[in-house]
Design a protein that fits this description.
Elements: H1 2-26, E1 30-36, E2 39-46, H2 49-54, E3 66-76, E4 79-80, E5 89-94, E6 100-104, E7 115-116, E8 121-128, H3 131-135, E9 143-144
Length: 148
């Protein structure tokens, strides 16, 4: 009986790991790691127009060390919104050199209000709402590990 219980437990753990892996791949986003002020974040990359348009829509949760990095390919004025996004986010606006040039904190879920970059940026990093204050991220800090 003990070995049956152990085998059932192993099968449950393996099944959970497979499902978790499938859920991670189901988003369809490429993944990477970046470093913000000494903190490592596992990010999904929104590179194509379709990926940038979908972003974190319809997500109901996100791991505290996770985020999404929007890469616009070059500096431009960026406008974001929270339509169909169910979790509050912090948006870090990052220039081509990796410098944080603006932070929008604790965005309002599902809001259609426009959130504009303070000046042209190449990247926007979305983290869980409150992460910037909790980690002490500030304008002028450098983000490392960004795509070239």
């Amino acid at each position: 009986m003990k070995s049956f219980f152990q085998m059932a437990l192993v099968v449950c753990f393996i099944s959970a790991a497979v499902v978790a892996g499938l859920n991670a791949k189901a988003t369809g986003f490429e993944r990477s790691r970046i470093l913000v002020d000494g903190e490592v974040y596992n990010v999904e990359l929104a590179i194509s127009p379709e990926e940038r348009s979908r972003g974190l829509m319809f997500r109901t949760e996100m791991a505290k060390d996770a985020g999404m990095l929007f890469d616009f390919g070059g500096p431009r004025d960026i406008s974001m919104w929270m339509k169909n996004t169910f979790i509050s986010l912090d948006m870090l606006f990052i220039d081509s050199n990796g410098m944080i040039i603006g932070i929008e904190k604790r965005t309002v879920p599902q809001s259609e209000a426009i959130i504009a970059s303070p000046k042209p940026v190449r990247f926007v990093l979305e983290l869980n709402g409150g992460a910037s204050d909790k980690m002490g991220f500030e304008v002028g800090e450098k983000v490392e590990g960004l795509p070239r």
